[in-house]
Design goal:
With about 240 residues, the protein is mainly α. Among the domains are: about 1-70; about 145-240, no CATH class. Helices cover about 75% and strands about 0% of the residues. The chain has helices spanning about 5-20, 25-60, 65-85, 110-140, 150-165, 165-185, 185-190, 195-230. The two termini are about 15 Å apart.
Length: about 240
């Protein structure tokens, strides 16, 4: 029963949501299920927060390697939680001016907004800035011209990256103007050979073909995995690989 009941609930809810997308009469069923999902997600957030506190407190108490980072995580967690729940710095709503807590916790100028704007965003920007160096290193290793495929990849990447810069427009514009003046060709007919236009063609045509194929493969994989979960074949969400 410990496994049968969760399987039945998961399959029933999943098929109800699918049916609600195709049968207008059943749309309200899907909406009710999504409301239940939001309630369960709120409970799951509480459980997840409790588990996070438990794990990091244990790490700090045992003085294990990296316990300082766990201490910072706990301080940031409790500080953000206290400011968010107390709505520190939030002005009352215009509809309910007599109630201090009636304002939105994401209100500009509030404590939660300040944390997001001046702490989270700079840290996230720093992480993405560091990620750019890792991407550049990986691209350098991937674009080594070892074979024909690597040469094609390297050439395409060069045209796309260089075509997105202002230097690419200037470098490609001068030869096209010389060809137009010398051979008497119309400038409009040569516009497609400018690097900025050429990279747009690569991204909008060839890259779009590859993206569509990848998205179709992802959609088929999601559909097959969803059917396995709904039919009880995949039970990994129960904590079992059976």
């Amino acid at each position: 029963m410990k496994r049968t009941v969760p399987l039945i609930i998961a399959a029933t809810v999943g098929f109800v949501v699918i049916i609600s997308w195709f049968i207008p009469y059943a749309q309200s069923w899907g909406q009710n299920v999504m409301i239940w999902f939001d309630i369960l997600a709120a409970i799951a957030i509480v459980l997840g927060g409790g588990n996070l506190v438990k794990m990091h407190l244990r790490k700090v108490s045992d003085r294990r390697s990296g316990w300082g980072y766990s201490l910072i995580t706990l301080l940031a967690f409790f500080t953000t939680l206290a400011i968010g729940l107390s709505k520190f710095g939030v002005n009352p709503s215009e509809l309910y001016p007599d109630y201090v807590w009636s304002g939105n916790h994401l209100q500009e100028g509030g404590g939660f907004w300040w944390i997001y704007q001046y702490l989270y965003l700079p840290l996230a920007s720093t992480m993405f800035a560091l990620l750019a160096f890792f991407i550049a290193s990986a691209a350098f290793r991937a674009f080594r011209a070892k074979n024909v495929e690597a040469i094609i990849l390297l050439g395409t990447a060069f045209f796309v990256l260089f075509g997105k810069t202002y230097a690419g427009v200037i470098v490609s514009k001068a030869p096209l103007e010389w060809i137009s003046t010398t051979l008497g060709w119309q400038t409009d007919a040569l516009e497609m050979f400018r690097l900025d236009r050429f990279q747009e063609t690569i991204m909008d045509t060839f890259n779009a073909w590859g993206n569509r194929a990848i998205m179709i493969g992802i959609a088929l994989g999601v559909a097959s995995l969803s059917l396995k979960v709904l039919l009880g074949v995949d039970r990994s969400y129960l904590g079992s690989q059976e």
